[in-house]
Amino acid sequence: MENEFEFEEFEEEVQEYEGEAIEESKLKGVVSVTIPPSLVLAVVYDGAEGKALVKFYDPVGDVVYYWYDNTGHRPYLIVKMSPEELVEKFPDLLKHPGFSHIDVEEKYDALHDERIVVTKVYAKDPLTVGGGKKSFRDMLGATWESRIKYHHSYLFDRGIIPGMWYRSNGSGLVPVEIFIPPEVKSSLGKVFKQEHAKVAEEWMPLFQAPIPHLRRVAIDVEVYTPQENKIPDPKEALYEVISVAVVGSDGLKRVFVLKRPGAEADLRYRPDYEVFFFDSEYDLIREVLKVIVQYPVVITFNGDNFDLPYLYNRALALGIPKEELPIAAKRDYVSVVPGIHIDLFKFFAIKAVEAYAFGGVYRGERGLDGIAYAILGVGKVERQKNVSKMGYWELAEYNYRDALITLYFTLYNNELVMKLILLMSRIAKMPIEDITRSQVSAWIRNMLYYEHRRRGWLIPNKEDILAEKGQVYTKAIIKGKKYAGAVVLDPPLGVFFNVYVLDFASLYPSIISKWNLSYETVNCKGGGERPIPELPHTVCRDRPGMTSTLVGVLRDLRVHVYKKLAKSAPTPAERQLYDVVQSAMKVFINASYGVFGAENFPLYCPPVAELTTALARYVMTSTVLKATQLGLIPLYGDTDSLFLWDVSEDKLKKLIEYTEELGIDIELDKVYRFVMFSGRKKNYLGVTADGGVVVKGIVAKKRNAPPLVKELVEEIIDRLKNVATVDDMLKIREEVIAMVKETEAKIREKKITLEKLGIKIVLNKNLNEYTKNKPQHVKAAEQLLKYGIQVGRGDAIVLIKTKDAMGVKPIQLARIDEIDEKKYLEYISTSLEQVLEAMGVSMEELRGAMRLF
């Protein structure tokens, strides 16, 4: 069953880490000025050397190289005063201990469409520019480009693209030439407008460059916990590390276990992994540190917040010298040497990744267990006790499984996750450690900043854009939004057969490209065209906008090149790779319009976002009007999809031709045998011609429903797959009514097992961390504690809804006569009333005189 999700705009849970990426460890990779063809793993600032450092990985030699800047590049900010004015106004600048030198440079100010001469003030270190005490940014007042992290500024200026291939013969870095297949290169003349073809040609190597296997190791740490359900503080690291699992992509499978007084370490054979026992915690941690330095990539799940900072601080507490540690614990993330650290907890929490790369399959899940079940179909080992009370072999198995799942996230489906990360790193011009810890707005920001520097454009301040371009004029319908959004046609109530769904291919990106929308082209000097009467905003068409060009190129590469190659490439490996490429592009282009309407975006430009949605409404409404004129019957329209009833091929062809005249591609997305509409927006169930089921909104709440309700919903959907005619639907309607009545009777008469009524919810925190509002599964877990059953973060609680004052009991303590049948009947209503209403049946009518309340 396919579930469709929409994430046009979303609140980001992952916040980009603050401060500079500074290399602190004395441990290093192979320092060299000559580099064989290698991939850029990271760009950081080495504080001890006072230089930018590029980490390369050579997959052939399996070596991490350290290449230090040899150009004398320095951190800087920009002011619009001349050097003479600057020194006269700020005489203390030259005396600042961090001052390096001043230079002048000509820049293009796209916001005001003029060339200007600016002064660049260089510093000896990044903190002098901004972030440190008495920084230039604080001293000089009005500055530009002063909030860009130095390691980003360096790669922008040097044109270094993370995830791409370079080599050096000792004189400097040179990009490795990338072969572009003829079937890809030929699209330049066929697909792209002349002004876009050159840009597309520059982007193609990013998608065609080889993506090698990055040898990596997953690490999971278990710590002794004297107080039940309280996670040890990694900053204090007061308690022993009792077990560490390390699982490598090269076949390494080990669990390091600390011996305990009075517990015999019986040597059992483990077919899946090796277990090593240590008398000393010091020696155990030393062994883990040896593993870390042997891999170019370290993978964890929540390693930024717990595993690696705990190892770091525990190692220091045990007397291991700081300079010997391959771990650097920063304020809000943790890095490793000589390679990089990817925390998959933060990567999977990025909403754009969840929505566009994985289609919402793990929507709302944040724990390892929930995401693993959704993506991989496997889960953690369910524990019955605290890790501190587990026996050696139970602990080893629990620890090993967590590390194995963490690694497998990056191996399944031909290394999909790692390929996505590398491709998105290339598109965003953002190092891997940054992109896996940042929201999509930061990715798009870096992509645009890189392009500004490449073109010699001044990067504007957000305040300048707002002052120059103005605010919004439409009023949002949805609370909390700043402008009117997409158009949604009210759907009917009922069942409709032979429904065609047309999809406006990448509607918002297409609009940005077609109407030349970018911060510098809207409301520009000299007027311009007014693309839509309802808004006073104008757009200049005399020069291509930066955003419209980049978004348009990515959109056309995805729709017209890589999406097609994902189906037509000659080998399965090529088809799979091209599918990953188009998925990575999708993440960017689908989020490209929303960022301009987000106040925290540094290029925030409300008119761009407002025009995009207004033009989308125009495209949808004009297409609906044309469909009606052609004699087609529009049933429902939602953002970029249009549902048509009982379509003829000739009329459909004319409608597609009409949208092409608008400059928007529309394609047949699905043909439904029938669709059940509930009369509510974004809410329907459809069965395609091949028996596939698409559900939107109708059963969205069933994830935490009891098994009885889930099974009922699944059985009803399974029967609906066989419906081909109206007579079939009428027959199924009676069957569904009978099934619902039978299920409700079982609940009322309590002729059912508790297992069918249990609601399974995982604890995301330890019980003592729930201080204000206590969800029902927490209340159930607290009852278990009273009976000596220990539970904590990561444990699944199965609860039963009861009639007592608490309203809930854990399944272990509940009796069937205590169940609150009213609550369970509500679950059935919530999950099925919309399907039943589409069939012409209300829950009230179905229950009739049988209702108890």
Automatic annotation (TrEMBL):
Pfam families: DNA_pol_B, DNA_pol_B_exo1. Coiled coil: none annotated. It is an enzyme of class 2 (transferase). It comes from the Archaea. Its EC number is 2.7.7.7. It catalyses: DNA(n) + a 2'-deoxyribonucleoside 5'-triphosphate = DNA(n+1) + diphosphate. One of its GO terms (molecular function) is DNA binding. GO terms for biological process: DNA-templated DNA replication. Belongs to the DNA polymerase type-B family. This is DNA polymerase.
